[in-house]
Amino acid sequence: MFTGIVEELGEIVRLTEGAEDSAVIAVRGPLVTSDARDGDSISVNGVCLTVIDNVDGVFTADVMGETLRRSSLGALQVGSNVNLERAAALGSRLGGHLVQGHVDGVAKLVSREPADQWEVVTFSLPAELARYVVEKGSITVDGVSLTVMAVTDDTFSVGMIPATSKHTVLGSKAIGEPVNLEVDVIAKYVEKMLGSRNV
């Protein structure tokens, strides 16, 4: 479980194709690896990955084909920057919202509109996720917990403060680039519970 508060901008240092449409990635992240052990979880652009090795500030993780197909990790290259967050510890502050690191879909950046103290950034909204996205609700974009400012049938917009732009990959994303989306898990559970009721 994560909070959507990015701790560090990491860098992909090695990508190795594995068997059956899988891959092994190596990510440089001195902060998130400072106390990482084999088996720990680290969020990479919103995808929960398991540490299999950690040497000199670089951790390695297996990425199965399902993850490559259902997230933007398959588009990463050596040198790509990524958002990194260690798993939340019980008893720590919850600065963002409850984030599982399970990507629900991939969207694209549609537009960026600068304002005085922030930037309005709009992303496409996959049809199958639209029912979970509401104005003033939470959404995770590339592992960043954000508040939805506005929603249309096929887009949603967020307000991005300078700190978010500076300290996450969202600040350098270009129009048309893919991002990982994770909707609020509470909305999915509510839908399932209400759907099972005999009304």
Description of the structure:
With 199 residues, the protein is mainly β. It is 12% helix and 41% strand. It has three helices and twelve strands. The strands form two sheets. Strands 1-2-5-4-3-6 form a six-stranded antiparallel beta barrel. β9 and β10 form a beta hairpin. The protein is globular and about 45 Å long. It starts with 7 loop residues before the first strand and ends with a helix.
State the end-to-end CA separation.
Answer: 33 Å
Q: What are the low-pLDDT stretches, counting only 5+ consecutive residues below 50?
A: none
| Integer-rounded radius of gyration | 17 Å
Number of strands: 12
Helix content: 10-25%
Structural class: mainly beta
What are the main properties of this structure?
mainly beta, riboflavin biosynthesis, single chain, transferase, 199 residues, six-stranded antiparallel barrel, globular, 3 helices
Annotate the secondary structure layout.
Elements: E1 8-17, E2 23-28, E3 41-44, E4 47-55, E5 58-63, H1 65-70, E6 81-86, E7 105-114, E8 119-124, E9 138-141, E10 144-151, E11 155-160, H2 162-167, E12 178-183, H3 185-195
Antiparallel strand pairs: 1-2, 1-6, 2-5, 3-4, 3-6, 4-5, 7-8, 7-12, 8-11, 9-10, 9-12, 10-11
Pfam family, one: Lum_binding
Enzyme class: transferase
Organism: Actinoplanes cyaneus
